[in-house]
């Protein structure tokens, strides 16, 4: 506990503690406990356990249970930092999530993981090439070769008259600084999670139990070294390609071969589990990765010296030589990697035809989204920098040639994929709406039979909420469609090698005016820029709005739940602390003679599930589980089939002796049932103990305003339900089951 916190009061044995775990971006422990004044009883400022303050609020909940809340939403970064990091690190974060969305069998995992890691290397190379495109191509090569571009710009004119090699070497410091910045951000320790490691003995063999137990730092250290080496080697290739275009002496060829060898070594290392994943305490693995990094950094120094000491007759015409083709082949590589991922997943589908088609395909969709966003960011950076430098472009007198043609094709591919996906999404929404309306009407008719005439408008709102909530089930196929279109868009960048513009190609083959295509590409580019700028501005002012802070935090908290496994420059995983800390607290409470009712709301139910898998049997026998608005089955079982499946859900039920209740609503677009979608008056779709888990809640409680009120009960959807009568009834039910279990002797 942090300094100045209230003294820890001893837990009274023999009772039941209701330990609530909130979802993403909770407002605080007071809201979770529904008590105005709380005190911290364990943890620190980043995450901790809170109880109502004695003497100022009721310390007990339904059936006399002791209330306690685990607040973990401060483990991720602060609001402004969170939003800005979410913006710039989102491609890296998404790629890390994609690794965990793999299919469940080991053969697929053995192929998906290296493919995602190689794609991660390409994202690092693209990050460097984006800075190279601005600093070396647009500024050093194009702008400084045009007096009209450097005039009245003191920050450029001082270097404008220098030799080309001097300009290139000096402005190469910009990508070097960018590499060092992201390297520093990846190694900077935000919080030490070393004190929160889970016991080495895992209570479960299921993969979900490894969340929070995996010491990712050795792996991240090796991946950081490899990605830094890739970044410096990419810069070397850019400089040497420009030099080779002016004549390739033996030294230039040798240095190009050395840079290619470093890049090849990086690809081999990330594809070799024996060198990266295994033997985390073996220093030889770390030595190999650091040696490659050291060679790459030293090679960059040699390349810069070579350019200065071996001047050439530069012909500054058009873009930086070799840069456009390097960029184009990188985009083609993205398409090839996505195609390889698709082939692996389709092969897995044919091998295991009993699985639902979308299961396991999330890795393709999220990896494509990561690559597409990275390409869009890079292309927009280059185009906006060109707009700033080419100040006379609006009058028709272009000062510089502009960014590489591959960026235009990239924006065209990304915008086309996004536009087609949106069109298909609208069509799917319209075509599926009658079916969703019929289902909603049937649900509302059963929940509210014979409604009064004045309840008609409210009944329509309830039906609309159910219709919208059911659209969530259609999102996974739409994301797969976007992945396919994004991969095709990346492949079309190969057209940049033939030097046509997208408008020229479409006009020649489809008779669509080239001007219209150019307008669409420009509009798409400005839309991406507006979205980026909007997120930046929103990040600065996010602390003023709790509602916006909630929406920003959702994506961040979901993405950083999973440990880093593909890209080391993403933010760290908070589950490395949250899950072991929860397991230790539950163990302490049980050993103190208490039963523990672990209540997880929304994403908190996933934390609770991972925690239960780490509890030893003697502790799990004194634990009950209450989940509400839980996405375990509806989202996680579809998106993370290797970690959430029928087997792990049944294992969780067995571990708590099937003292498990799950509360769900038809109006909830995120949460849902776990084992059976039956209503209270219907038989369950499963037999045995799982049939008693799910409890459907009618939403809203009524259609008309109750006596003494002027508005009808709210439609809660995905909102928490701690104040509902059904929640209190579930707590009383589970607390009674816990009290019937003989407890272990209290800890002295």
TrEMBL record:
Keywords: Membrane, Transmembrane, Transmembrane helix. The keyword Metal-binding does not apply. The keyword rRNA processing does not apply. InterPro entries: AB_hydrolase_fold (IPR029058). Residues 684-718 are annotated as: Disordered. The chain crosses the membrane at residues 84-103, 115-136, 166-186, 251-276, 288-309, 329-347, 359-379, 409-431, 474-498, 518-543. SUPFAM superfamilies: alpha/beta-Hydrolases. This is Integral membrane protein. It comes from Micromonospora maritima.
């Amino acid at each position: 506990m942090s300094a100045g916190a209230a003294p820890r009061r001893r837990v009274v044995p023999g009772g039941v503690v209701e330990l609530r775990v909130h979802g993403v971006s909770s407002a605080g422990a007071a809201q979770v406990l529904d008590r105005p004044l709380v005190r911290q009883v364990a943890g620190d400022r980043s995450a901790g356990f809170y109880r109502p303050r004695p003497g100022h609020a009721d310390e007990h909940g339904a059936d006399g249970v002791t209330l306690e809340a685990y607040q973990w939403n401060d483990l991720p970064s602060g609001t402004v930092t969170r939003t800005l990091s979410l913006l710039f690190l989102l491609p890296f974060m998404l790629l890390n999530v994609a690794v965990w969305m793999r299919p469940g069998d080991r053969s697929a995992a053995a192929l998906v993981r290296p493919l995602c890691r190689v794609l991660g290397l390409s994202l690092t190379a693209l990050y460097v090439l984006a800075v190279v495109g601005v600093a070396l191509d647009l500024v050093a090569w194009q702008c400084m070769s045009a007096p009209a571009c450097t005039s009245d710009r003191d920050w450029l004119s001082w270097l404008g008259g220098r030799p080309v090699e001097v300009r290139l070497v000096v402005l190469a410091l910009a990508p070097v600084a960018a590499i060092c910045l992201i390297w520093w951000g990846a190694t900077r320790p935000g919080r030490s999670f070393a004190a929160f490691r889970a016991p080495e003995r895992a209570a479960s063999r299921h993969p979900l139990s490894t969340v929070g137990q995996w010491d990712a730092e050795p792996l991240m250290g090796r991946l950081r070294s490899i990605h830094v080496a890739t970044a410096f080697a990419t810069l070397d290739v850019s400089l040497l390609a420009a030099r080779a275009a002016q004549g390739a002496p033996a030294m230039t060829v040798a240095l190009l071969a050395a840079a290619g060898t470093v890049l090849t070594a990086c690809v081999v290392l990330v594809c070799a589990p024996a060198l990266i994943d295994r033997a985390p305490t073996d220093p030889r693995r770390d030595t190999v990765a650091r040696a490659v990094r050291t060679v790459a950094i030293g090679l960059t120094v040699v390349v810069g010296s070579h350019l200065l000491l071996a001047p050439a007759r530069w012909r500054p015409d058009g873009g930086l030589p070799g840069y456009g083709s390097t960029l184009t082949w990188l985009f083609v590589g993205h398409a090839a990697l996505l195609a390889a991922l698709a082939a692996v997943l389709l092969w897995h589908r044919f091998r295991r035809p009993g699985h639902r088609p979308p299961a396991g395909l999330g890795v393709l969709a999220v990896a494509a989204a990561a690559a597409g966003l990275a390409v869009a960011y890079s292309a927009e950076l280059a185009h906006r920098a060109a707009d700033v430098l080419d100040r006379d472009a609006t009058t028709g007198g272009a000062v510089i040639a502009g960014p590489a043609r591959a960026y235009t094709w990239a924006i065209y591919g990304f915008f086309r994929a996004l536009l087609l996906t949106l069109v298909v999404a609208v069509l799917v929404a319209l075509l599926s709406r009658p079916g969703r309306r019929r289902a909603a009407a049937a649900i509302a008719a059963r929940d509210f039979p014979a409604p009064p005439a004045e309840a008609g408008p409210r009944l329509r709102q309830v039906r609309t909420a159910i219709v919208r909530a059911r659209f969530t089930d259609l999102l996974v196929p739409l994301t797969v469609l976007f992945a396919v279109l994004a991969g095709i868009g990346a492949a079309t960048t190969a057209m940049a090698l033939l030097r046509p513009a997208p408008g020229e190609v479409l006009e020649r083959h489809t008779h669509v005016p080239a001007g219209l295509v150019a307008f669409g590409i420009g509009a798409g580019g400005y839309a991406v820029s507006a979205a980026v700028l909007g997120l930046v501005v929103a990040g600065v002012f996010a602390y003023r709005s709790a509602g916006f802070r909630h929406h920003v935090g959702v994506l961040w908290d979901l993405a950083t739940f999973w440990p880093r496994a593909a890209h080391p420059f993403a933010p760290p995983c908070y589950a490395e602390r949250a899950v072991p800390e929860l397991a230790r607290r539950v163990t302490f409470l049980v050993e103190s003679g208490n039963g523990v009712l672990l209540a997880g709301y929304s994403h908190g139910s996933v934390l609770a599930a991972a925690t239960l898998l780490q509890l030893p049997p003697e502790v799990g026998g004194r634990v009950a589980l209450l989940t509400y608005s839980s996405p375990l089955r509806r989202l996680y079982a579809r998106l993370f089939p290797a970690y959430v499946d029928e087997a792990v859900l049944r294992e969780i039920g067995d571990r708590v002796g099937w003292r498990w209740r799950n509360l769900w609503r038809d109006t909830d677009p995120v949460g849902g049932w776990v084992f059976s979608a039956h209503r209270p008056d219907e038989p369950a779709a499963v037999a045995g103990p799982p049939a008693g888990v799910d409890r459907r809640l009618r939403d809203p409680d009524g259609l008309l305003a109750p006596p003494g009120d002027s508005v009808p009960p709210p439609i809660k959807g995905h909102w928490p339900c701690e104040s509902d009568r059904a929640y209190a009834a579930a707590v009383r039910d589970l607390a009674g089951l816990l009290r019937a279990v003989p407890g272990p002797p209290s800890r002295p």
